[in-house]
Amino acid sequence: MELLIATRNRGKLKEIQRLLAGCDIVVRGLETYDGLPEVVEDGDTFEANARKKAATMARLTGCLALADDSGLTVRALGGKPGIFSARYAGEKATDADNNRKLLNDMADVPVGQRQAAFHCVMALCSPSGACRLFEGRLDGEILLQPRGEGGFGYDPLFMVPSYGCTLAELPLDVKNRISHRGLALKKLINHLLASH
Questions:
Q1: SS3 label, residue 64
Q2: Could you list the residue range(s) of the whole structural domain that residue 68 is in?
Q3: CATH code assigned at 185
Q4: Parallel, antiparallel, or unpaired for β 65-74 and 2-5?
Q5: Residues 6+ apart with CB under 8 A from 157
Q6: I need a labelling partner for 22 at 20 to 30 A (CA). Which of 105, 110, 148, 196 fits?
Q7: Which residue in the list 24, 68, 69, 105 is annotated as catalytic?
Q8: Is residue 173 annotated as part of the catalytic site, yes or no?
Q9: CA distance 129 to 142
Q10: What is each CA distance from 135 to 31, 33, 35, 67, in whole angstroms?
Q11: Helix 180-195, helix 10-20: angle, nearest 10
Q12: Which of 130, 129, 2, 3 is nearest to 66 (CA)?
């Protein structure tokens, strides 16, 4: 079976490929196809954005497509950055820019009140337009400064209390097992294996 991963984020693609290794699924990235447009994420929920990306790519390529929309929600910031996680500090923001903005916005939030969660919604869409959604969530807290060299995005700031370290400090296999994306993908894999 072939599955197109509708993302241009190399870190995300690598994570998903690793999670699907050994599942008898040929994973392809968007670079496999020429001229695919950028899908504008203009939905107001993770679900809407994931569904739009997967449905668009499935229709354009004639391939089963998987897209996710994921992000960080911080309780003290009223759920921000949420669906704007990747561009929290602006359209062309780097991970470092976003992390800096998050730390600035949380400067007055004391330890003990820095709860956050990573959310992931994956949409699996066929060229016919049929879609299924799979969700995952990882709870943690935001540190006062980054720790760790691995991962991407907000991983160096996101402490996982049960492991006593950040996502950026965890080995990739452990991160994949417990992460919001890993949990959503596990549900997706179970669905794919059950239906094929």
A1: coil
A2: 2-195
A3: 3.90.950.10
A4: parallel
A5: 99, 102, 103, 142, 143, 145, 146, 166
A6: 148
A7: 69
A8: no
A9: 38
A10: 26, 27, 30, 12
A11: 50
A12: 3
14 Cβ contact list (under 8 Å, min separation 6): none
Q: What's the total number of domains in the chain? A: 1
Segment 12-66, tens digit of pLDDT: 788 788 878 878 888 889 988 888 999 988 999 999 999 999 999 999 999 999 9
- Three-state DSSP class for residue 123: strand
- The answer to whether the beta carbons of residues 168 and 148 sit under 8 Å apart is yes
**In the 8-state DSSP scheme, what is residue 38?**
P
Closest CA to 122 of 70, 59, 84, 190: 70
53: its two tokens: 């990306």
Task: Provide the token pair at 75.
Answer: 């309780």
Residue 8 is which amino acid? Answer: R
Q: Give 123-174 pLDDT, tens digit per residue.
A: 999 999 999 999 999 999 999 999 999 888 999 999 999 999 999 999 988 9
Phi, psi angles (nearest 5°) of residue 184: -65, -40
DSSP letter, residue 39? P
